[in-house]
Amino acid sequence: MLKQINGLHHVTSLASAAQENNDFFTRVLGLRRVKKTVNFDAPEVYHLYYGDETGSPGSVMTYFPFPGAKRGRPGAGEVGTTIFSVPEGALPWWRERLATRQVSGLKDDVVFGESRLYFEGPDGDGFALAEVPGDARAPWLAGGVDADHAIRGFRGAHIRLSDGSATEELLRFMNYEERERADGIVRLGVAGGNGADLIELETIRGASHAWQGAGSVHHVAFSVDDRARQLEVRKALADTGYSVTPVIDRDYFWAIYFRSPGGVLFEVATNEPGFDRDEDTAHLGQALRLPSQHAHLREVLEEKYLEPIRD
Asked: What CATH class does 8-305 carry?
């Protein structure tokens, strides 16, 4: 078992408009934009990161906003819902806030005894707020959201699969253990994890396969402390038969990627060096930061491709 994994590091999704995406996460959900950079492989597209004050692992939602991208088709083989943690008793306040801002898909539910409010992002993205007593993580307080209601970070992710058995086996190898099981859903968690340490696997027999587009989760990343532990995880996964990429420098963390049995792209990311490596904490996410290999493109990117984002 891979004891190095702490829970989620970040979740990365696709969007169709940078400004709309920015406004939703900062002005509606009250998260902080902790980095404004570009896609390593498509520098004409933003890569936007939202989270708590410093972008702590387990708090960061990231987006590639491809202008005008068509919406994805929900189905099996994807993260269907990204779940955020809020304090106990916060959901009525959030329901009113989201309804006032005309957020779609509002639905109250109780999952494994946990109260949740489901809602959709601007591109039909699947989200939920879950009341989690005792989540001690410090929230970012902005956008009219106070400490009694603010998002603490991720609770976890809900993955839809046509057959969840092989992915469940993989997650058990990755330090997750079964917590509860009912109605075709198994909930797994990391003991002593980082708070963003739950994964739910829902088996939907005969479901059509998801197609990625705006509103789809591109990949889900798991957290390890540092590069040494990441290399241990990489070797163990490769020895088990997974095709794992070499370590890739993503400026704010190092990453490895592999495809899970159910088709979801998994990443393992380091907690180091963090989002303050090229900006001080007080000014995170304000200036456009470019990877060194794309620094020479700044003028053309800003003039031709990257529409300014109004804060």
From this structure: alpha beta
